[in-house]
Amino acid sequence: MRNIKEQFILLLATGLGIGYAPHAPGTFGSLLGPLLVMGILYWNLAFPVYLILTVVLFLVGVYVCNQGAKILGLDDPGCIVFDEIAAFTVVLIPVVYWPSSANFLWISIIAFLWFRLFDIWKPWPVRFFDRIHGGWGIMADDYVAAIYAAICLYGSLILLGWF
């Protein structure tokens, strides 16, 4: 039986349990990313505060993912999706405060597709960070994949004329 602290850590690490999806938990976890960003944007915070929150989520994620992996006794359990969720704050950096006529839903769909591509494909240096054990590796590979996705999202939106 897990204690309350372990249960809380696993609740966070698994994205409120969505990481327990029987198939493609990372994909399901990534679907929560835009909702997190929408929640942050609701407070209409200044862009520097958004960037600070992105870093704070990374650091919290290092702890939560590391502890979650230890509790489960695995290096990088598929059910841990906090990394995918938090990384979306990076993916959507190009658009969070950019005036655009485009619908946030469509931008989120494009961002989601780019992020999943890079998170699954793991081009260099994503794969390098994926090989790091513990919370740092669990979080870092997704944040690097998110940087690739953010660049491609920005380019896509320019090509679509939404910028």
Q: End-to-end distance, in Å?
A: 52 Å
Order of helices and strands: HHHHHHH
The proportion of residues forming helix, as a percent range, comes to 55-70%
Main beta sheet: none
Low-confidence stretches: none
Mean pLDDT: 94
> Helical region count?
7
User: For the CA atoms, what is the radius of gyration?
Assistant: 15 Å
The 3D shape can be described as globular
Which strand-content bin applies to the residues?
A: under 5%
Total number of beta strands: 0
Structural class: mainly alpha
How many domain modules? 1
Give a concise summary.
The protein is mainly α. Keywords: Hydrolase, Membrane, Transmembrane, Transmembrane helix.
Structure in words:
- With 163 residues, the protein is mostly helical.
- It has one domain (4-159).
- Helices cover 69% and strands 0% of the residues.
- It has seven helices and no strands.
- It has helices spanning 4-13, 25-42, 47-72, 82-91, 104-121, 126-130, 134-159.
- Helix 2 packs across helix 4, helix 2 crosses helix 5 and helix 4 (82-91) packs parallel to helix 7.
- The N and C termini lie far apart (52 Å).
- The mean pLDDT is 94.
